[in-house]
Specification:
Helix content is 30%, strand content 48%. It is α+β, with helices and mostly antiparallel strands and 106 residues long. It has a single domain, classed as Nuclear Transport Factor 2, Chain: A (Roll), CATH 3.10.450. It has a six-stranded mixed β-sheet with strand order 2-1-6-5-4-3. The longest helix has 14 residues. The two termini are 20 Å apart. The mean pLDDT is 96.
Length: 106
Amino acid sequence: MDLPNCIQAYFEADNRNDLEVLMATMSPEAIVEDEHRRHAGPEAIRNWWIEAKRKTPHVNAPIDATTTGDVTQVRTRVSGDFPGSPVTLLFTFTVANDAIARLEIA
């Protein structure tokens, strides 16, 4: 699957539980929208990720992806220690200057 470098690095870091590398994929102004909550900026995104991994340990396996301009949508199989695992979620990334500027998870 052909993903922009920062998105590939995001999934690899997330699955290794490597917060520092994951944060390096994000722009300083990045925004993450997950579970109807908005997390803006490095501190909020760091806290979101730590809490998500603590609350629901999981791994992501990209299934397929489409890119249009600076937006890449990745269907991902998410499996872990939660009811209904695995589930398929849609990760919508907006990339700017080789970094993730926005991530929406639905």
